[in-house]
Bifunctional protein GlmU
Amino acid sequence: MSVPRPAAVIVLAAGEGTRMKSKTPKVLHEVCGRTLVDHMLAAARGLTPERLVVVIGHAREQVGAHLAETAPDARLVVQEKRNGTGHAVRTALEAEGPIEGTILVTYGDTPLLRAETLAVLLERHAADANAVTVLTAVVPDPTGYGRIVRDGDGAVLEIVEEKDASPEQRAITEMNSGVYAFDGALLADGLRRIGAANAQGEEYLTDVLAILREDGHRVGACVAADHAEVEGVNDRVQLAFVRRVLNDRILEAHMRAGVTVVDPAGTWVDAGVVMEPDVVIHPGTQLRGATRVRAGAEVGPGSTLTDTVVGEDAVVRNTVADGAEIGAGATVGPFAYLRPGTVLGRGGKIGAYVETKNARIGEGSKVPHLTYVGDATIGAGSNIGAACVFVNYDGVGKHHTVVGDHVRVGSDNMLVAPVTIGDGAYTAAGSVITSDVPPGAMAVARGRQRNIEGWVARRRAGTPSDEAARRALAAPETAPETAAEGAPGVNGADPAAR
Ligand code: UD1
Ligand code: CA
């Protein structure tokens, strides 16, 4: 962007936002993974200002603490009493000292404002050599906004607040967005001369325009192409509107960059999410935080991924993942829950009704069904049978389980941590593994089966079970075969090995 670099951007965020009816200060409400004020600051940074100043007041500890974390580049100025927009800017200038050059003033509650629109305002301000240029918009319903009063030649005379406006002025549909480019020195001078003799008894920043014009300076206006962009958030209805618009913008950018979004209306993607070409996002999917989806991966339907990395060509269906790393070509879901610290290797599988936490699952290893893997390291090429629990919690502390390479854990196993299963080992179905298993061993840890012949005939005589049993015993050709030799019921064992 070849626009004149502003000396400062001042973001006003001291107001209370009572119409949000919230314990959370208005500017800290989130849309698309960022607070309202952080969206504004992101747009402001697009102009590479020399200084970024945020005026805070209401809930200043909370807002200040948030900004200290998300915007360490911003200087915070506290406005003790909310005496109006003019007072807020004056407070900022008093704290910052004289600023030469252009000052852009904007609000913390207008997250749709784009850097491009602010750049157009700055360009116009510089090209027309104005003392001040206000960003305006023509809106269907200007109720509540300051109106732009122009003379017969279209020159801006003043801005009149709704509460101070005459009926004719109220009929004006060109509104003040509250965003301005000012000459720094003239702004400071104008602010020293504004009063509070108005309907709200506040120092109006808008009064600076009439003062500068009366002094013979050039006062201009720049009409925004899209009025929605300058409308701020005052209540939760507007919050939802803004979220929808921002989400549409984010999806459009991804689609133009080669991502397929099957259902844009039912897909929500945060501002910080990164996606590569040929990613496919199925309906009902939310991608949040710092999630990254690599080329060719498919996510959804019905998946919520937060701060999660999805590897190239991986497939993630009906899954909730938080802080997980899914390897290239891996498959996850449906109905999987990946909690922080889950790392699934290349080509691995986490299947249906599986929960994982702090679990490294090696390349090509599979956890296909109904299993909890907590605090574990699983090597490469291993298989965990259905319905296993990595028993990681003894009621006080958490313990780790290690499963080696090419291990076959039978179905319905409890691996009671801390425990290690060596490379190439097998465990029998239904085992409760409490001791380490050496490499290549078969661990059997379950009660031996005992058949009490004739028990039904003696204890359940005359029941349908008894009758079925009698029929079976009378037909010798249907008697059960003797069990094959080999693995005692290892799920997923190579049949060739039997
Ligand atoms: C202001 C403008 C109005 C414009 C509208 C656009 C004035 C006098 N009026 O009106 O012309 O159409 O914005 O939304 O400027 N703030 C502070 N400290 C204060 C007062 C306000 O930081 O003492 C901040 C608020 O947090 C908010 C912004 O300034 O972000 C605007 O304040 P608000 O009270 O909403 O101004 P409006 O009356 O809506
Ligand atoms: Ca407002």
Q: What stands out?
A: The domain at 8-230 is CATH 3.90.550.10 (Spore Coat Polysaccharide Biosynthesis Protein SpsA; Chain A). The longest helix spans residues 236-256. The longest strand covers residues 349-361.
